[in-house]
Amino acid sequence: MSPLLQIKDLHVEVEGKKILNGVNLEIRPGEVHALMGPNGSGKSTLSNALMGHPKYIVTKGSIIYKAEDITLKSPDQRAKSGIFLAFQYPTAIPGVSVTNFLRTVMKTLLGKEVAVKEFRKELKDKMELLEMKDSFAGRYVNDGFSGGEKKRLEILQMALIKPQLALLDETDSGLDIDALKIVSEGINRLRGTEIGMLVITHYQRLLNYVQPDVVHVLVEGRIAQTGGKELALELESKGYEGIEKKAAQTV
User: Fold this and answer.
1) What's the CA gap between 198 and 86, in Å, rounded?
2) Which candidate, 207, 206, 244, places its Cα nearest to that of 225?
3) Is the pTM of this model over 0.85?
4) Contact (Cβ atoms closer than 8 angstroms) between residue 171 and residue 154
5) SS3 content of the chain, % helix, strand, coil (to 5)
6) Does a structural domain hold residue 131?
7) 61 is in which domain, residue-wise?
């Protein structure tokens, strides 16, 4: 099966500072890849670069998505092509209801108005899938939301727009154990043969619930080690120090 995403020798700068120093990674449809690494290793930089954030400048290498080079494409072009980014810190939008926000998102991505009846049915179905109360749809986007509610809204967006590539940037950040379980269940329900996922996390605990096919460790802007889910367990017990030392010796 051909790769859905190919990252080739990717170098990225932010405000003149080099963050990524030659990342290589491939994801195929149906695969869930976990990206781990210590703070400051470049995990969020990679997700933002993949989504085309203008602050993150690609100085070398390429991003190939569905056999097309998207390195220079804008964020909206990437979103319309089927790439979704779940933010680490979702923004509040007071005065805009969840329902209106999600309908606008779908209209923008599809390029046409979504019939109200059709949209409401789809929204209701997905909220039931994710075990969300009907009242959630009438609240303002992330306004007064708990950390768990913010992340559940991100997963609800993903369920509605059905991306082909989902980038989940530290979805477990700030979640208590109950919220983590709920969000993880939502992610697992959206797994399938047509979608590829890159789950970015600092800790192994998310991977207790979302079982990855492949685990990568990012150190100093490079993939320092790749393995199976057992690699995440090893990192939980031993930490990143050993991998960081090996990475430093190869520079």
Assistant:
1) 10
2) 244
3) yes
4) yes
5) 40, 30, 30
6) no
7) 5-77+84-89+168-179+200-250
Q: Rg of the Cα trace of the chain?
A: 18
Q: Is the pLDDT higher at 246 or at 166?
A: 166
User: Do the domain assignments include residue 191?
Assistant: no
In a domain, 32, yes or no: yes
CA distance 116 to 103: 9
Please tell me the predicted confidence (pLDDT) of residue 22.
Answer: 97
**Residue 137 in domain:** no
Distance CA 75, CA 89 (A): 18
Scanning the chain, the segments in alpha helix (DSSP H) are 43-51, 75-80, 98-110, 116-129, 147-161, 177-190, 229-238, 241-250
Structure tokens at 121: 């049915």
What is the DSSP pairing of strand 32-36 with strand 214-219?
A: parallel
For the stretch 63-114, pLDDT in tens is 999 999 999 999 999 999 999 999 888 899 999 999 999 999 999 988 888 8
Number of domains in the chain: 1
pLDDT at 5: 98
- Is residue 249 predicted with pLDDT exceeding 70? no
Q: Which of 21-25, 26-30, 181-185, 236-240 has the lowest mean pLDDT?
A: 236-240
